[in-house]
């Protein structure tokens, strides 16, 4: 009899409990204790697990046979839905002459257990058609599958996550206890190697005893240690360090261990290592643009699993958002989304194709090979993981082109590298061809050696002298990249400065405009600056007197300091056949400039639209043309006349519109070319053919108009065999969201044709990108 005490007034009174009340209390306490027990450290069946992904040709084999057909076998698995082919989870069937058993999925995705043995009389017996019906196991979710062989009762019991879901009795052909399992077991297939598992396995266990429902439930909710009574073997499978032909999974059993060795998994000619890009300051870029349109991107990457809410980042790409660039520039990013999904993003002329491969997750904390093949003929993009086709996106009707800038690795050109890759990259390959499954798989095993279509191949193990060498035939090496670098500006005999489209300085950042010309004034002696040339678009709005006043005030700083030459762009005039430049000529008047010692002459007396100047620097004599936007045929005739009269001068032609962002001379079909604004305008190809190529003393043509962060350049040979360098320098896009005060400086050297080029921000006191600091071999005319 049990009692309890109850406070009544100030006295403790004991009362008797009924048997029913006692029973209820015990039950409640017991249930509470059980709940507490199973909640402490219990693994979540739905949680992700360290595991190995099996697919065709991938399997693992035991180094020896286990002792007998196990009484209980269990496996933590994650099985893909609707595979619709027969799949072996674990099995050792070969040719029907051995004792064998298997746990598998049928072609209609049902769970099946099968065994076959030779009895004491030499008769072969098997257990046919043991299918689990009404239980869905191919759900792409983690689950513990348990199969119990009750030999005494001739029954097979199936459990899912510790709960019995199916039972079949009456199997008189069930193998007796202690029936040997003749051959070593295979995981992911059997000895026929024609039926492959498409799924993941985290753990396999075999038991010598008949596991009870309570015992199965216990270890569905708790991890084993390897010392459990009745446990004969157990293997935990993980690909966290990568899976290779030598990878071995050790048996957790204390006695007679049997180990598993991986077969058919990837092998690389180098170890699984690469460069970490998990920091926005780690930036690398190729030296040059790709030579052809890319159609297949490959990379071996490693991303951590805990990237919740953060993009995996850009593996390779050239997307940029610096200013506005609405021309026909092509951008491409090969990247990973916040859900770990591979993504191929193309953009050109405002048209976007964004292909994300949902359901594919690269956040596995292990090295994985991912390939995206863009088949524009079939209008589809195919995604491969470790050489296997995982997903296909249809309706990919975008027409790809050569990306506008050199590819960056581990990021793109957006300011501050915000979408940097959040993990490691071991290698990247880019192809102009649409790689097939077999081609991708073939080059998983070996480094490709100059095969057709390989645009670039880089391995990020250890750079040599800071260079990741391109293993393709293009020698497009990758080096460290930074937008802004220390201002190691070249020095020489003298320098010429070019001011690239100052329109947003005049309209929005006047102090940056003033600082720009003040820097030139302060450094005139340091760099022996002999001339400063505007490339047009002095202001953004030609009717704004405020902007013109800013420009005039800024340029007046150079009066009496250094010769400077102004030139109207399309923003500085009214777009019509009359080409009205009223404010330009008001704020930079002919009366002022025509009186200067270096002034040469004008196409039209009284107007500063098309003029030329003479500058002597050291032993070199220059004739510098400032040609307004959209010159006519008669202006070109006038230029020819003046150049022919000055054969001893090195002619530099500055004009607002000439070179396009891709280094091509603009023509009638080029976006934003002169003739698209004014019908009788001559484009760059005509300026070249009719003027620049015809004179052996034309050494340089420089233009603006096309906003582009890098200096574009080309060199052509004139009719006299002379080389003529042509350059584009335009900072308007860079200045749009913050005036940078950019200038391009050309530094000349005494008794040399070498000219050093620097692209410099007076606001940041930095040079912009290493690729914009280079040298030219100018075809200088000597006196």
UniProtKB/TrEMBL annotation:
The UniProt keyword set, sorted, is:
Disulfide bond, Membrane, Signal, Transmembrane, Transmembrane helix
Positions of the LamG-like jellyroll fold domain: 296-438
Per its record, what are the GO molecular function terms? hydrolase activity
Q: What is this protein called?
A: LamG-like jellyroll fold domain-containing protein
Q: Membrane spanning segments where?
A: 20-42
Q: Name one Pfam family in it.
A: Metallophos
In terms of Gene3D superfamilies, this protein maps to: 2.60.120.200, 3.60.21.10
Q: What is the lineage of its organism?
A: Bacteria, Bacillati, Bacillota, Bacilli, Bacillales
At the top level, the lineage of the source is Bacteria
